[in-house]
Automatic annotation (TrEMBL):
It comes from the Bacteria. It comes from Thomasclavelia cocleata. InterPro entries: DNA_helicase_N/primase_C, P-loop_NTPase. This is Replicative DNA helicase.
Length: 483
């Protein structure tokens, strides 16, 4: 008997239990991703097709013999197969002893054996001993076992510990530098910040820190996404808080204000009941996004539960497809049990992300937003200490920026008014004062860590309108240390 047939026999009770529970409580379909292809046994394929159609298409919440009978009158071919498998009595007998409390466990079991079947179809040998071992394994344990096997094979084949002479291909390096390959993706509308940090360059992590609702996600949308599009790059954005629709909504507002150059505020989009001109503007923005996204320029992946190992899986997958830019919004502790020293695990998780990113590994870039400690709310000068217990997450990063809103007394005429300048003139070398407008909003960006330039010597001032997703650099300043 082939391995796949053996797996089919092993998973048969699991398939029967899942479908029986769904007939008993069909609303559970709303909480899982199941398709007919997840089932191997023909009988349970048929019964699943019936319950799936009745719940998702015909919107039936009670699946008794009459409801099923009326449905099958419209599907005579399915009815014949259904009757050959025992009709409603098959389900009735199963429902009497099955408990829906075990539903999630049956789903995990089903997914596990489907993965084993895929391994077999890929030509990976799964013998009887391995099948017995898998019975007590979770999906994750199977994944880790094969990951270790492949890692061992390739590490032994070609070690990653290599040594080089300092002169190794140094002339080729000069040619690369001449072409500007060491310069990263620029921050849109932020010339000074890009020049100082080198932009978002390959083999590095950029951290963006700030308090809740300060606009970290808005910074990602406004500074990075336009540059991705302008430079014909692609990006994968992993979401920890906002979902897909929130990002789509925010990006529609961004395109309306920054690309089409027509006024559109977030609350107008959020509240609905659009005027004709608003609807037309949104459709125009959607068309622009669709045209730019024909080749999946921006891929959004929302996490149901955040785990760093899933970030690494996703990055490995898309790196193999040629993607070089990634973003994680927002970096947090892994979901699950909170350890007493969880901050140490956060630091280790950042190291593991860097092991994928760095030049000696996959040589890609990831921008990661994170939240500062709540004690930062009244602080004026930001340093690494504003991160709190997990401050060493900065260690693997090449660039760390922190954002706060300009305080009222830092505006012109205020008790602690800041002196803000920009460079102008024919050669861009003249230092010119900048006066902030009373009716506009501003933020300060602190360059806390910077491997390509200065850090903590001056701060960047940006104008922002978070209701319209507009962000642009206006100058630089020196924020005094807190006293």
């Amino acid at each position: 008997m082939s391995t796949i047939k053996k797996v089919a026999e092993i998973k048969l009770p699991c398939e029967a239990n899942i479908v029986s529970i769904l007939f008993k409580k069909p609303e559970l379909l709303s909480n899982v991703e199941l398709s007919i292809n997840d089932f191997t046994n023909n009988a349970w394929k048929v019964y699943f097709a019936i319950v799936n159609d009745l719940y998702n298409i015909e919107k039936k919440n009670v699946l008794d013999v009459i409801t099923v009978g009326l449905y099958l009158e419209k599907h005579p071919k399915l009815k014949t197969v259904y009757e050959n498998f025992g009709g409603y009595n098959t389900i009735k007998n199963a429902i009497e002893y099955i408990s829906e409390d075990n539903f999630n466990g049956y789903i995990s079991e089903l997914k596990k054996w489907n993965i084993v079947i895929k391994l077999c179809k890929m030509g990976i040998i799964v013998d009887d001993n391995k099948l017995k071992e898998f019975i007590d394994c979770t999906t994750e344990e199977i994944y880790e076992e094969y990951e270790c096997m492949f890692n061992d094979i390739f590490i032994n084949a070609d070690t990653d510990m290599k040594s080089y002479s300092i002169s190794y291909k140094i002339r080729d390096l000069i040619d690369e530098l001449d072409e500007g390959l060491a310069v990263g993706l620029p921050y849109h509308n932020m010339r000074m910040l890009t020049n100082e940090t080198g932009g978002q360059y390959m083999g590095s992590i950029t951290l963006i820190g700030g308090l809740s609702n300060v606009g970290k996600s808005a910074f990602l949308r406004s500074s990075t996404i336009p540059s991705i599009i302008e430079n014909n790059e692609k990006i994968v954005i992993m979401l920890n808080e906002d979902g897909l629709k929130k990002w789509q909504r925010e990006f529609l507002v961004y395109v309306a204000n920054n690309v089409i150059k027509k006024d559109l505020q977030k609350q107008t989009v959020r509240d609905g009941s659009f005027k004709n001109e608003t609807k037309e503007l949104l459709l125009e923005a959607a068309k622009w996004i669709e045209n730019k996204d024909k080749d999946n320029v921006i891929t959004i992946i929302p996490f149901k539960k955040y785990k760093t190992k899933n970030v690494i899986k996703i990055m490995n997958k898309y790196i193999s497809l040629g993607i070089r830019y990634f973003a994680l919004d927002t970096y947090k502790m892994d979901a699950g049990k909170v350890e007493s020293h969880a901050w140490l695990q956060m630091q280790q998780n950042m190291v593991e992300i860097n092991d994928i990113v760095k030049p000696e590994s996959k040589n890609v870039h990831i921008l990661i937003t994170f939240q500062l400690s709540k004690g930062s709310v009244m602080q004026r000068y930001y340093t690494q200490d504003n991160i709190g217990m997990a401050k060493n997450i900065v260690d693997p990063a090449s660039t760390c920026l922190m954002i706060r809103t300009l305080f009222d007394d830092e505006r012109p005429g205020g008790k602690r008014a800041l002196n803000i300048y920009t460079y102008a003139g024919k050669n861009g070398l003249s230092k010119v004062p900048v006066r902030l407008a009373d009716n506009k909003h501003y933020q300060i960006i602190f360059i806390v860590k910077n491997r390509e330039g200065a850090a903590n010597t001056y701060q960047i001032v940006v104008e922002h309108d978070l209701s319209r997703n507009i962000l642009k650099e206006v100058g630089f300043t020196n924020v005094p240390m807190d006293y």
